[in-house]
Amino acid sequence: MKVKLLRLLARDHQTVLRVIVIAGLILLLPMLGIKLKLQAGQLKRLEEKKQLIVQIPAMERRLKAIKWSPKSLDFALDGVVIKDGISSVVSADKIYSEGETAGRYTILKITSDSVILGDNVTKERREVFLNGKK
Questions:
Q1: Is the model's pLDDT at 134 over the cut of 70?
Q2: The dihedral of CA 20, 26, 31, 37: what is its sign?
Q3: 3-state DSSP call for residue 82?
Q4: Cα three-residue angle 117-104-63, rounded to 5 degrees
Q5: Could you give the CA distance from residue 53 to residue 76 in angstroms, rounded to a whole number?
Q6: What is the rounded CA–CA span in Å between residue 10 and residue 108?
Q7: Rounded to whole angstroms, what are the CA distances from 40 to 34, 36, 90?
C-alpha cells in the first residue's frame, strides 16, 4: 500500500503539491483556532474596559449631584455607650473607644451625643453627632 502511494506521488507532481497543501492546512487550522480564541478573549476584556471608561462621565455627574468630595465624611455614628464612666462609640457595627482608630479617623473625644474625630490624612478635626444632628 505504501509503495503504491509513493509510486503515485513520484509520478504525479500535482498530487504531491495537493498532499502538502492539505497537510499544511490540517496543521495550520488548529493553530488559527487557538489564536482566534485568544483574540476573542482580548476583545472581551477591552470591551469591558471600554464600558467602564464610558461610565466615568455619568459617575462624575452623580458624585457632583450628591456633593461628594474626597473630604466628605465616611464615618457614621450609630450609637454612644457610656458604662461605668467609660465611653464608647458604635460605627458600622464596630465599637471604638477614645484613642482608637476607625478607618482614617482617630476617636479623640466621646460625649453623650457626639464624637470628635481626628482625620489622620488631612489632620482636621470633625465632630459627628448621633442621628446626624448638629
A1: no
A2: positive
A3: strand
A4: 100
A5: 31
A6: 95
A7: 10, 6, 50
| Helical H segments across the chain, by residue range | 2-11, 13-65
The CA radius of gyration of the chain, in Å to the nearest whole number, is 35
> From the centroid of its chain, how far is CA 48?
12
Q: d(Cα 107, Cα 84) in Å, to the nearest integer? A: 19
Q: Judge whether residue 1 has pLDDT over 90.
A: no
Catalogue the E-assigned strands of 29-124.
Answer: 79-83, 86-91, 94-97, 101-102, 105-110, 114-119
Between CA 13 and CA 44 the distance in angstroms is 46
Overall pTM surpassing 0.70 (yes/no): no
pLDDT in tens, 76-131: 888 898 888 889 998 888 899 999 998 888 999 999 889 999 988 778 888 888 87
Cα 78 to its chain centre, rounded Å, is: 29
Residue 48 has phi, psi (to 5 degrees) of: -65, -45
Residues facing residue 94 across a β-bridge: 91
